[in-house]
Every structure is written in C-alpha cells, then in structure tokens.
Amino acid sequence: MKKAKITSGKRSNKKVTKHKQIVRKKSIVKTRVHSDMPAFKTSMMALISETSTNLPRDVRRALAWAIERETAGSQAALALKMIAVNTDMAYENKAPICQDTGMPAFEIKAPAGIDQILMREKINEAIAESTRIGKLRPNAVDSLTGKNSGNNLGDGCPIIHFEQWNKKEIEVRLILKGGGCENKSIQYSLPCELPNLGRADRTVEGIKKCLLHAVWQAQGHGCSVGAIGAAIGGDRASGYHYAKQQLFRTLDDINPDADLAEIEDYILQNANKLNIGTMGFGGLATLVGCKIGSYHRLPASFFVSAAYNCWAFRRLGVILDLKTGGIKRWLYKEDFPAVKMAKEEKMPLTGREISLTLPLSEEQVRALKVGDILLLNGIMHMGRDVLHHHLLTHDSPVNLEGSVIYHCGPVALIKGDKWYMNAAGPTTSIREEPYQGDIIRKFKVRIVIGKGGMGAKTLAALKDVGAVYVSAIGGAAQYYSGCIQEVEGVDFLEFGVPEAMWHVRVKDFPVIVTMDSNGNSLHAEIEKKSAAELAKFSGSVKV
C-alpha cells in the first residue's frame, strides 16, 4: 500500500488562489441571481418624486429657524412666509417644490457583484418616466445644438456615481440642485485676492475668507436663504465633487473633525451678519448650513471649492433590499410625517398691495417705486435665455407693449389638447442682462419678473422706457402656478418646454418692485451694504 503524503494542512499557493477564485465566483453568481431587482425602478420613481416634492426634515427645521429669526413685516419675512406656504402646497399636491428640478445627481453604494449597468438603465427609465408625468422638468440640453432631449437623458445626464461597500444592501441618495444655485457655486485657488476681503492665503484664515465670499457673491441669485457644501484641497475636479457631496450631510450634524467643525460654525454665524437675507432682500437669515470636507492636495495647488444650494434643498435617500430593489427605509425623512410649515393657507396680505390689470401704461408704471407689493392680473408672457436672444433679431408673435415678460421655465403638462402649469416659479434673471435692456426698448415692455435682480444696463432701460423689474420668490413654483388661471397659448415650443414662450392668464400674482423707473435698485443697495459688512472680515479672521 502506498503511504499517504503528510502535509502541513495548507494548500499550495496555486491551489489556494484557485480555491479563492472559485469561492469568489460562487459569491458573485449568488449575488447576480437577484441582480434583476424587480422593484428597483419603482423605488427610483418613488425617490425622484419624494425628492422633488417634499423637503427633508432637517431642511424644514432650518427654514423654521429662519422664519422665527426674521424681522416681522419685512420683505424677507414676507418671502419666507411664501416659501413656507409653497412647501406645504408641493407636499400636498405631490408636485415640484421648484420648477427647476436641476440635474439629478445620484450617489450609490452597493456590494460587489451588483449589476451597475442594469441599475443605470433602470434609473434612466425612471428619470424619463418622472419627466413625462411632471415630477421633473426636461432639463437636458445638447451643449452644441441647444436641443432639449425632452426626457432628461443625454450625454452625462443624469449624473450617477457608484461606490462599492461591504454591506448587504444598496444605498441610493439623490440631490436635485437647480441651475440658479449651481451657477453660484465657485472655486478659489489660494493665494488669491478677493473683493472686499483682500488677500486670502493658504491658511485657515484664507479658507474662511473664501467661504464668506462664496456666500456674499451668491446674493439673491441662488435663492437664499441657502447652504454651502465646501471642500478644502483635492484637485479641481475632486474638490467640486467633494464639495457637492457635503450637501448630503444633514444641516444639524456636527463635523467629527474639530477643526472643520470650528470653520463650519464660524461661517454659519458670520454669514448671517452680512444681512443679505432671503432672496437678497436684506434680512437676518442668509445661510442655514455650512458643511466642509478636506482632501490632501498637491504642493503647488490649494483649492477651496464651494457648492451653493438654495433654500429648496431637495435631497433624499433610500436603503434598498439587495434581492428585490424594494425600499427598506428612507434617509433624511425620519420616523414622523411632514408637518405644515405655514400658519396660513396663502401669503398673508398687508392691505398695502397694489392691484394692477395688464397691459399697463407708462404713467402707471412710473408711479411705482421700490418696495411696492403688486398683485398682477391679466395676460403675461414667459420667456428665458433662448427667447430673449431670438427676439433681438425677430418680431414677437404677440404684442408686448405695456405687457409683462416673466423669466420662467415652467413644468408644463398637457391633458388632451390643453396645457397646464405643474410648477411655475421664477428663474435667475441676471442671465438675461445682455439682452433685457434692448428687449425693453424694442417692445416697450413695462414689467419684467424674475429673481435675484439685474444690472446697470437693464436699470438704464427701465428709466428710459418707463418700466420696472419686480421680484417673485424663487422656488415658490406651486404658489405661482396656483395664480395661473389658464394657459392661453405657446410659441416656439421647438426651443423646449423651459425655453418656449408661454402666454398665461394670471390672477393676484404677487411680486415686489425691486428696480424702478427712477433708477433705484434694491439689489444694488443690498450688494453695497453687504459688501461693507463683508469688508469687516478683511483683517485677521477670528471666532
């Protein structure tokens, strides 16, 4: 009989490697048996809908703090009350809080072996379907042709980042960050010179200067009250991404890094001393959150990146069952239902509102002044970037003399042969600054509606023609859509839904005059005053 070979009990390296491959392969196969996840698309539809229509609990608490803090009877207080009413309406109507549903950005954590290609396909299907039913506005535009895909799909749309983890479940977080606040995100390369603050060095003091400047430069364009996610270090790409990732933290958490926690608290406390206020109207509440992360960097580079987010801070998340893709639990929602934000069902009136029926005469408009609250009635016309550029060299399909141009890219849906507005708040107006003055002069437009204010060229045209710029409350898409009685028609639908020229009949549409025909601009005044406050931090920055 042949003697058995005695071994140490260990396989050879070759056999061990082969054994591990077999075990790993079996594990992967076992995971992939369930990779079809039949409920995954439905879960993504629910996540998209809830994120678009329901603010998370920490954001609601932050807005409640801002409402309590603000001076009663001020323009900022009025804006915050409308924000609260709008938040309630969006939740009750299951309709978008803000018409600008942004570029959907997903952060996904999943164990090894899960089919990312399948998840991406299902997310794309959910995005397209959510757009069709009006939970999202079609926002994906080809950068070269200007053509809107109509379904929020395209090269790089939506944004999806995958990360592997060891847990036996899937985490999906989503943020809907609109273009107005995205445009106010900013990156600094230290050392640098900052307006009103002087030199920012590669120090904690320099970082603080950058982040205070990031809040200041947003003014009302990004729909304050806002929040910022920030990243120190990294390269240009990783810094921006990491800054945006900070926005997935809750507003009331405390950074585990004591040094970063100190900077976060410093920025939150001192940004609210700038008196920029809600919508840039001036006020005591400007920022509701500052969240910071830090990366190592190259010796030659020192970036500070800031992702600015508006008050309509739409981000939620879900934990999914690994086998079915069904929702096991929600993130950010906590275990209690949404409570009403507002004490009123509608924006409370002061009795000082001026009711106007469109179109208007030059005499009527020249009598208006900064601070007047108007209730508009009649036909107004919506138009944004593409329309303004088009009208410079073409006639308008409708008579605009004495009328209103509303900077709005709505969520518009059609039932039968009739359009209706599912969300219709204002867009950031400053993008139209190169065109607006010429449009006012060419067509004798009397009122321009938007948010964030406009510049010197538009102000000069208001004075010359006899027109006013009035501010609507950014993000209040449900409130304003409720003021629209009927969609009278649409032109240039080939520009895409957000850029088409919509003609709507409104009733008691509330706005505030912030630039008048006498050369006065609330926006210029607040920017100047807040710059003086910012300059107080130009020396040594101390807590």
Characterization of this structure:
33% of the residues lie in helices and 22% in strands. The protein is α/β, with parallel strands linked by helices and 543 residues long. It folds into three domains: 34-178 and 341-348, no CATH class; 179-309, no CATH class; 354-526, Fe-S hydro-lyase, tartrate dehydratase beta-type, catalytic domain (fumarase, Alpha-Beta Barrel). The protein has a five-stranded mixed sheet with strand order 2-1-3-10-11, covered by helices on one side. It has a five-stranded mixed barrel with strand order 13-14-17-18-20. A hairpin with a 6-residue loop joins β10 and β11. The termini are far apart. The model is unreliable at 1-34 (pLDDT under 50).
Q: Would you summarize the structure shown here?
A:
By secondary structure, this protein is an alpha/beta fold.
Number of strand elements: 20
What is the domain total for the residues? Answer: 3
Please describe the biggest sheet, giving its number of strands, its sense, and whether it closes into a barrel.
Answer: 5 strands, mixed
Q: Which residue ranges are poorly predicted, with pLDDT under 50 across at least 5 consecutive positions? A: 1-34
Helix percentage range:
25-40%
> Termini separation (Å)?
86 Å
In the CATH hierarchy, the architecture of the largest domain is: Alpha-Beta Barrel
In order across it, which strands form the biggest sheet? 2-1-3-10-11
CATH class of the largest domain: Alpha Beta
Mean pLDDT: 92
Shape: globular
What structural category do the secondary elements indicate? alpha/beta
* Computed Rg: 26 Å
Strand content: 15-25%
